[in-house]
Write a structure and sequence with these properties.
- The chain folds into 2 domains: about 70 residues, Helix Hairpins (Orthogonal Bundle); about 60 residues, Roll (Chitinase A, domain 3).
- The chain contains 3 helices and 7 strands.
- The strands form 2 sheets. The chain has a 5-stranded mixed β-sheet. A two-stranded parallel sheet has the order 1-2.
Length: about 160
């Protein structure tokens, strides 16, 4: 990762990155090294598909290890936050004005965002629109799919 931008994570998100890094270093890397040794033992490396595959796997593993180490180094942990205004680390219930539907979202850093678990990035259009606002506030969200209005119902 070449940019120096901070990476905002919850403790849970940082733990997940560390688990993945440990898995890659302690299990996947030795596995790839053994595959490389086995492929080398087959002889002529110029036409050895197993060797090429093992080198590719090694590059992917080492690249991901470097990426995770850089992310962990740049991680800024989201601490306990006040819940009077929407901020990174808060959970917010929003009412969609058009249909009255209420959805709950956790505002997390972009590396931890997972729309399937209702974890949205602080860089998403909806999070940008509601950041710093309090319960009862209505706001128009401008997204690539068009504009829509939401009301902040609860912040925790």
């Amino acid at each position: 990762m070449s940019n120096t931008k901070d990476i905002y994570l919850t403790e849970e998100g940082l733990d997940e990155l560390k688990k993945e890094l440990d898995y890659l270093k302690l299990e996947k890397r030795p596995e790839v090294i053994n595959a490389l040794k086995d492929a080398r033992a087959l002889g002529d490396l110029s036409e050895n598909a197993e060797y090429d595959a093992a080198r590719t796997a090694q590059a992917e593993v080492e690249g991901r290890i470097a990426e995770l180490e850089a992310m962990i180094e740049k991680a800024v942990i989201i601490k306990e936050v006040a819940t009077d205004k929407v901020a990174l680390g808060t959970t917010v219930k929003l009412k969609y004005i058009e249909d009255g539907e209420i959805e709950e979202y956790s505002i997390v850093g972009s590396m931890e965002a997972d729309p399937f678990q209702n974890k949205i990035s602080n860089e998403s259009p909806i999070a940008k629109a509601i950041m710093g606002l309090s319960v009862g506030t209505r706001v128009t969200v401008e997204s690539p799919q068009g504009k829509y209005d939401v009301e902040i119902v609860e912040i925790s």
